[in-house]
Amino acid sequence: MDAKVRITLESLVNRLDDYFIDDPDAGRFNVHRDLFRDEELFALEMEHVFEASWVFLGHESQLPEPHDYLTTHIGRQPVVIMRDEGGELAAFLNVCPHRGTRLYPQRSGNSPVQMCPYHAWCFDSAGNNVKLKDQELGCYTEEFLQGDHGLISIGQFENYQGFLFGALRSEVPTLFEYLGDTRFFIDTFAQQSADGMEILPGEVSYTYEGNWKMQVENTMDIYHLTSVHATFAKIVGERQARENEAAGSDKVKAVNLNSLSGLASGTYTFDHGHTVFWGTDPAKENRALWSMRDDLLARGVEPLTVDWMFRPRVINFFPNMQFVDSASLQLRIIRPLSAQKTEMTMLCLAPKGEPREGRRRRLRQYEDFYNASGIATPDDVACYEDIGHGGLAASSQDWIQGFARGMENVIAGPDELAKEIGINPLHSSSGVQVQDETVFRGFYREWRSRMEVAKS
Ligand SMILES: [Fe+2]
């Protein structure tokens, strides 16, 4: 890196104390607005947050057959996951080692042999170089010909219950350790079918003009539901009223936000910046999974785990993966593009072998709330862009005031519900209709601790 830029970045990191006010005893937790708009900070967080440890890459059902591949990114770096002839999965930099051309230009596909478009070097689905074009005319040295011209593996690649994670570096915690007690919540998805989960066709991707951390916050932000999603609540409420009048109508009910008031909910913060929101569903029988409930118990899935499958829950895996299980089940992948531009990939996740009626119900609920064509996502994006395009231009206002809501409610360690599950969060917050902002603290503290490394 250019020395002049390096000094600038180091001096930025040395200002970390200027970016946070973290003093809960004094009722203060604030984040500086530069975290959402400064391109030099963005470059640092790509290096020390996204490219320094585990990120979510994809689900094994996205590449089920030998020679299937799926492209993605770790931070700024292109990555390809491939399933080889024998069915083994591996992840590599999506880069031809010859001149650095991106090797797989498509999002996904099936390719027993992939040819680089530039000089036609060829690679098999295990990442081995199988051909150097015109090798016999190449006048290569013997040393070069005996060298490895295969694709470069990423530092770590692991599969937890079908969910694929990778890290560029090899010196990272084990994935098991990194996920920690949040594994319980992955299990509430992964155990929904004896055959595991699958991503359904219809991946949706879009960009918004705003910082990636807005998406992290929004998914855990229950406070915004009754304002931003008032239209959704009104439409669902009116539809249900009509359906109740029409006996025998074809009912596929989505979660009605109007019915959530007065119900128990809470949040957990875990090591490594992961966070969880949980709620109470007043109409579990409307869930797609309901018809499989008896089968789940008969199959020997823990009753407590089955109970949790029917709680609305949102799980944020630091830094780029989100499960939202409220109206249907959505998996979200965050890809930061710049300080004020973010790409989202949204996937519908379902248990394999789901009965036809459950699958239909799942899809109808999913399209109601989610995606660019749903009634909710565009409203969230409009808010991000009102911040990204609008509010952040007010450079003389340095601090965000959020993160104070719930401060009097949060406790250190596990609450009773966490103890019942056997998990040990750093912080818990629970009660009636919790709309807690303190849950973001764990995320920002992890962000800060990652950036501290840049000082050394
Ligand atoms: Fe929202």
Give your account of this protein's structure.
- The protein is of the alpha+beta class.
- It folds into two domains: 106 residues, Rieske [2Fe-2S] iron-sulphur domain (Rieske Iron-sulfur Protein), CATH 2.102.10; 275 residues, Naphthalene 1,2-dioxygenase Alpha Subunit, Chain A, domain 1, CATH 3.90.380.10.
- The protein contains 15 helices and 23 strands.
- Strands 13, 14, 15, 16, 17, 18, 19, 20, 22 and 23 form a ten-stranded antiparallel β-sheet that branches.
- Helix 6 packs across helix 11.
- The mean pLDDT is 91.
- It binds fe (ii) ion.
- The site of fe (ii) ion has 6 residues, from loops.
List the helices and strands and how they pair.
Blueprint: H1 3-13, H2 16-19, E1 20-23, E2 28-32, H3 39-50, E3 55-59, E4 68-74, E5 77-83, E6 89-93, E7 108-110, E8 113-115, E9 122-124, E10 129-131, H4 142-145, E11 156-160, E12 163-167, H5 175-179, H6 183-190, E13 197-199, E14 204-208, H7 212-220, H8 225-228, H9 230-245, E15 264-269, E16 275-278, H10 293-298, H11 303-309, E17 313-317, E18 321-326, E19 328-338, E20 341-351, H12 356-369, H13 377-390, E21 399-400, E22 411-412, H14 416-421, E23 427-432, H15 440-452
Antiparallel strand pairs: 1-2, 2-21, 3-12, 4-5, 4-7, 5-6, 8-9, 9-10, 11-12, 13-20, 14-20, 15-16, 15-23, 16-17, 17-18, 18-19, 19-20, 22-23
Helix pairs in contact: 6-11
The structure holds fe (ii) ion.
